[in-house]
Design a protein that fits this description.
Layout (H helix, E strand, L loop, with lengths): L1 E7 L27 H7 L11 E5 L3 H11 L5 E5 L5 H14 L6 E6 L3 E2 L2 H16 L3 E6 L10 E4 L8 E7 L4 H10 L2 E11 H11 L1 H12 L2 E3 L2 E3 L2 H5 L6 H6 L5 E6 L3 E2 L4 H7 L8 E3 L2 E4 L5 E4 L4 E4 L4 E5 L4 E5 L6 H10 L10 E4 L2 E9 L2 E8 L7 E3 L3 E9 L2 E5 L2 E5 L4 E4 L5 E4 L6 E9 L8 E4 L12
Parallel strand pairs: 1-2, 1-4, 2-3, 3-11, 6-12, 14-16, 15-17, 16-18
Antiparallel strand pairs: 4-9, 5-13, 6-9, 7-8, 7-9, 8-12, 10-11, 18-19, 20-21, 21-22, 22-29, 23-30, 24-27, 24-29, 25-26, 25-28
Helix pairs in contact: 3-6, 3-7, 6-7
Length: 476
Amino acid sequence: MIIPVILSGGAGSRLWPLSRELYPKQLLPLVTDRTMLQETLLRLDGMNGLGEPLVVCNEAHRFMVAEQLRQLGVKTGAILLEPCGRNTAPAAALAALYAQECNHPEDLLLVLPADHLIQDAAEFRRLVGLAVARGEQGALVTFGIIPTRAETGYGYIQADRLAADGAAAVKRFVEKPDLQTAEEYIAAGNYYWNSGMFLFRADLYLSELEQHCPEMLLACRETFSRRRTDLDFIRLGEAEFAACPADSIDYAVMEKTTRAVVFPLAAGWNDIGAWSALWSVQEKDEAGNVRIGDVLTHEAKNCYLYARRRLLAAVGIEDLVVVETGDAVLVAQRDRVQEVKAIVEQLKRQQRDEALLHRRVNRPWGSYEGVDAGERFQVKRICVNPGASLSLQKHHHRAEHWVVVKGTARVTCGDQMVLLTENQSTYIPLGEVHRLENPGQIPLEIIEVQSGSYLGEDDIVRLEDVYGREPQQGEG
């Protein structure tokens, strides 16, 4: 059996301001109307011998991941929650330990990053099918992308002579080269881009990890032994995982093993690592511009123009990336978008929220969005999904006014419970125990006006929560 292991733990800082730490690129619809995570799962449709996927994600993303899987109707074997990022090798080890725990140690793990684009899904499935035999025989398979240009932004895999089944033994992995070296690789004809996609038996990966990086495997075993089930999630030992060495599958195992083979792949692959990559794969107008949202242009050429909330007008510009969101605007030269992460680092040093989340914040019950704020007040638009409810809670420093603008609200305030419909309102006094629920069949939307001496998201005491969240952990 093939178990897809979807790695969904990245931050995608080079796609800021659209990608944020708490809402990263793999959870966004960047190329189609499906998110990158959903597209990764959908391209597996029709593959033979496929088991239920395992998803490894950051704990902070768990409800968004679960909701996106629910939208597809995908049932997972498990959603493993990483307490912190430790790169891909420990993530794959945890998936292998899970397979071992389920008495499937010889199953093949198909390890796929959740943020890659593959335009020819049929060719991808065909090549995975060819690689199965090698994996079952004990090879650790990686998929090397047949290069279309001398690219300095990817690592490369040097391959030996191709065998009849299309595979080749791996000679070596090499780091991102300079342009001259990349051109030499292309001319040689036996170098492939390192895709970060793998196929190997769970037991053999653990065996190789024990041989080449035993301290990592020990930490992962300790982490897995401390696991506990929470709703649809498997929570892992936090302290144990924090102590685990951080490394990629390439460095920890593939560069050291004698079992590595590569299958060259030509299927329209792109890792969507920066805005220039999105520009290269999306439909353009007659002037070479990608225009998304409410965008007007005059004599603009070869630009990526994205407007989420407002009209974006571009005049007389060329080779730029302009991205507008509700709380930030990015303007960058298209050939320098790799440096966007420097802005994210500045935001983090200044402890600014724009590095972490959007003005619209997703929660397991729905979402909320900042509308306005000033001294001692804040206005939010809150959307609650049908049948969902916020936690039973209270605040020490703020009171709240709620006005229903769409749907029906069931409001608990103290020992009173009332139903409110459109244009009706209620008041939640400071310190009063309260809860907001949507008993209806359509989304509930309310406008919330907060007032008080402190309006931070940590001024919440959760008394009861259907989502298993901690007593104090942000809005709702």
